[in-house]
Amino acid sequence: MNLFFSLIIITFGFSTTTEDIYDNSWALIIGIDKYQNVQKLNYAVDDAESIKEILEDLFHFPSDNISILINEEATKQNILKSFSEMTKNAKEKDRVLVFFAGHGETMDLPGGGEKGYLIPVEGDAEELYLTSIPMDELREIALMSEAKHMLYLVDACYGGIAAVGSRGLEPQKTSDFINKVAKFQSRQVITAGGRGEQVIEKSEWGHSAFTMNLIRGLKDGAADYNADGFITANELGMFLSDKVSTDSENQQTPQYGRMTSQEGEFIFVYSENTIINQDVKSVSSDEKLDLLIAKIDKLESQNKNVEVVDEDDDEDKDDEDDKDDGWHTDSEVWFYVQYIKSNTYNKILPNFNRFSIGGAYNFYKGMYVNVAYSHYYDKDVNKSWFKIDPQYFEAQGIQFGLTIPIIYHYLETQVSYSLCNAQYDIDGEFEANFIDRKLGHNIAINLLGT
């Protein structure tokens, strides 16, 4: 007989998500091209809008929690007011990110040392104290916030980044690293460069060197140096320091550090953008090395594609990018293991178990196509299963599926079809005296929650 039925099953995965680390996420994003008293910029506003999109789409920052100030909106008063309000709203299990794309400047202090300033739209480099925002003032506001983690991403070059020399915990030497750094507070900062350096912008990039690599590091996961599915602020700082120096031909070198001695880390959960979460402890050294090599190769290929080209060609490429329809042809294959168990109270349907192992390919936006080996079985002799006498059921075969997101990656639906060698028996051995063995079919609709 042929087996043909449909099941609705709910399964739950156990992996570390953003919600396990943070209750809420807040961001203040600032981009200034049209300065009133200092040299204008070309791509700061584009940089700010790109970062806003990444935070919303990939890292689950709620739109209502993101404040964006562009050009004439980015006055000194508005920036300080928005930052103060955001840090007051953030609670003890929240994270706060501040992105600034614009000019920075350094003031020499009479007693030695230096003080770094961010220049708002009306700022004047000749009157920094009166018209601009000192980084140590932002540090003071940050220290008054209850937020667990805060990160400044400053696409500006200046000295005196208000950081201390704390190294923090080291992933290779700290067991359960992510859970430990997620528990401690942190106030961290990454800037585009140091004193006397200039922010490098190029038309072929459409961004500054800093933001271009920030997008690569976060969106493509290239900054996930240890391939554990998480990008910490320290990893991001190391990545940007290396790549921006290369792309700017050593004209600017990003600086990164901590504003306090606390050893926490601002965390981007990059693995939520894939179909599985990797547990770094369960990955062998060779597999980790392969993952890192793959990331480096991908990064090198991207760098080659950013060679200087004719502006007309670049405009054509931008037009093509604007027409991106969401289809993917270069995604990686992600392997997964799935176990499903259902309990029914219907004498027609069995208590059903399914074990699957296979791969998934992201072919369009958040949709994945799945191919897997599946093993189905039911050995509950208390069920009638179509006949008066109790019977056992078992099937093995290949499963084809389609996984579609319903609510981001929190809730997905998987529709699958399986072609199986199905058989029925009365003693559960299936080796001899089985009742029936035929080619079977199975259609399943699963709800997947993480």
TrEMBL record:
Residues 304-325 are annotated as: Disordered. PROSITE patterns: CASPASE_P20, EF_HAND_1. One of its GO terms (biological process) is proteolysis. InterPro entries: Caspase-like_dom_sf, EF_Hand_1_Ca_BS, Metacaspase, Pept_C14_caspase, Pept_C14_p20. Residues 27-159 form the Caspase family p20 domain. GO terms for molecular function: cysteine-type endopeptidase activity. One of its GO terms (cellular component) is cytoplasm. Residues 308-324 have a biased composition (Acidic residues). This is Caspase family p20 domain-containing protein. It comes from marine metagenome.
